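re: that chain from earlier
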Amino acid sequence: MPDARPGISPLMAGLQCRCPRCGKGPLFEHVLGMRERCSHCGLDYKFVDTGDGPAVFAIFILGFLCLGGTLIAEFKFGVPWWAHVLLLGVLTPILAVFLLRFLKATLIALQYKNKAEEGRLAKD
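^ sequence. v structure.
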């Protein structure tokens, strides 16, 4: 598990997608690929295990926003069907990528701050 340095705020690390210890090194390589370690402070990211958490949160948040927005647009403004397809076909994937980056970075920062690790029955 990483050392006990205080790190930065998990919310700031999530918003900036930066290292949870120093807040300077980038967390991701390309769009959602994790780096092996921080390029600034050298923190090894092997402790990271967010699992399906970011995807589940993103599905619930985006589902609520997209479905609610679609229902409002349809029943309040009478938007034609092709506008729904155009808006949701472009807007939803873009929002999904940004939301997944934010949620994954935030959960990594929370995992680092709280020293969360896999449960064990005995110390090794």
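The beta strands are 28-29, 33-34.
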